[in-house]
Amino acid sequence: MALRQLRYEGDISLKKTCKEVLTVDDKIRELLDDMMDTLRATGNGAALAANQVGILKRLVVVDYGDCQYKLINPKIIGQSGVQECIEGCLSFPNRFGMTIRPQSVTIQALNENGEEIILTGKWEMAKCFCHEIEHLDGECFLDKVIKFID
Q: Which domains does the chain have, with CATH numbers?
């Protein structure tokens, strides 16, 4: 396992759409492990999308509270409610803003064994799922900010 180099504002990979993973194999599992190690080494992040480390594949890792997920090809399949959030991002250090997100989000993905999983995140986890899946589509939270926080 290895730490990957984070990509920051201005890096073109943050604006690229990531490609679907067609085969879940040891190489994908190694990337997910590296991403989780990188996330944990940053100290204040909750999740990381693959393009944040320069990999244009639909991969996300989450390490928030008691939840640790390695997600392959995640997509939102349901949402409800509305919440106002404060967001930041490892790729945009020291930039924070208010966003409007769903209060609850259901996602479909594959786990690291290639098995389909369905997860529902509420409040902070809903924000996290939305934030990371948007990264995979080349979007960032700054595009959603309704008010920046100094």
A: 12-149 (3.90.45.10)
